[in-house]
Amino acid sequence: MSWITGVGLTPFGRLDGRTTLDLMSDAASAASAALADAGLRRDEVDGLITGYSTTLPHLMLSTVFAEHFGLVPCYAHAIQLGGATGFATVMLAHELVAAGVLRHVLVVAGENRLTGQSRDAAIQTLAQVGHPRYEVPLGPTIPAYYALVASRYLHETGTAAADLAELAVLMRRHAALHPGAQFCEAIGVADVLASKPIAAPLRILDCCPVSDGGAAVVVSRDRTGGTGVRIIGCGQAHTHQHVSTAPSLTSFGTAAAAARAGLGTRVALADIRYAVVYDSFTITLAILLEELGLAPRGGAGALAREGHFSREGAMPLNTHGGLLSYGHCGVGGAMAHLVEVQLQMTGRAGSRQVRDASMALLHGDGGVLSSHVTLLLEQAR
Q: Residue 375: beta bridge partners?
């Protein structure tokens, strides 16, 4: 068992003059805010886990950050698992704390991905998830890989691009209530369908933006403060790395990771009251929701249209706006989802507060739906 005792989150978007280390550590930024929230001094942190940064690709990012931030941890580790990294870092922190190895682990990620590199450099870097011989030389981008998945999904389910667009509209509606979101202007399905084509059938509003930003959480052995947020289950699944070797473009490792976290055994799906699900593209969100059992096959867009995933709905989803509208700064993008869960569970989400966040399901994916991490969180009063 472990507890999330503190969180910190920067605004996402264009944050000029801020480096990766700034976003991870400055007084107004992620790590400092998380420690202050947990009521901890830096010398009380005995573990440090970081993600990776494409703008600071140092081989030893965790110890670089420790030196920069003034930590002398007993344990330091950096993880690279694509979009699944944010939840994978927290899972590792949970395992170390639950095993009695560490008492307080600072998990932090940040990156100036928007202002710290050119658009072409970002596209080239992210495209390296492709197979170096059979995919990368052909020039596909990350959106192109996901467009293959989206095309197959629309064909097999008989749904339309407008159904995927409903998810982008929902995320923008939620982001409008968060002062740190990169995009808050209201959009409709027609706006999504009329936006710039990127890789058919995906358009620019089906895709998350590139952002600067940072996020941090503290995972502790003991509970602090009033309402507690407890990690009660974690699971992973890794079915493939490359699209050209994927066993399927319609079935992925989502359900396996969730089962290993205890969904269906330790926690029934009917007990879940709040969800945060990785949404790098609208197709990502649709497939993950459906494979988790939160929507029927082909039905995620329809449920979004009906209000099922709204703040007032039966299953509130990504109430900060998700990657699609709050923004995506790399590893910190998924961790922003986790920060929102902790704020919801401790009653600190302000105008975004939902009626009941007592049991939450979190899921992230890395690569092209290739690596999956599920977390189950419980509110304890």
A: 234, 362
Q: Does domain 2-117+211-220 have CATH number 3.40.50.150?
A: no
Tell me the average pLDDT across 170-176. Answer: 98
CA geometry: angle at 359 spanning 356 and 364, to 5°? 115
Tell me what the mean pLDDT of segment 307-330 comes to. Answer: 98
Consecutive H or E run containing 17: none
21-30, 243-252, 316-325: least confident range: 21-30
Domain boundaries, the chain: 2-117+211-220
Beta carbons of 157 and 297 less than 8 angstroms apart? yes
pLDDT at 26 (0 to 100): 67
pTM above 0.70, yes or no: yes
CA-to-CA distance for 39 and 66, rounded, in angstroms? 19
Distance CA 10, CA 41 (A): 20
User: Using omega within 30 degrees of 0 as the cis cutoff, is the peptide bond preceding 201 cis?
Assistant: yes
User: 115 CB contacts (<8 Å, ≥6 apart)?
Assistant: 14, 15, 16, 17, 18, 212
Residue in 200, 211, 201, 199 with CA at minimum distance from that of residue 175 = 211
End-to-end CA distance of the chain: 16
Judged by DSSP in three states, 15 sits in coil
**Closest C-alpha among 221, 253, 258, 218 to residue 362:** 258
Show contacts of 75-80: CB within 8 Å, 24+ apart: 75/46, 75/47, 75/48, 75/101, 75/102, 75/105, 76/47, 76/48, 76/49, 77/48, 77/49, 77/50, 78/49, 78/50, 78/51, 78/52, 79/49, 79/50, 79/51, 79/52, 80/51, 80/52
Share of the chain above pLDDT 90, in %: 91
pLDDT (tens digit, 9 = 90+) per residue, 61-100? 999 999 999 999 999 999 999 999 999 999 999 999 999 9
**Residues with Cβ < 8 Å from 121, sequence gap 6 or more?**
none
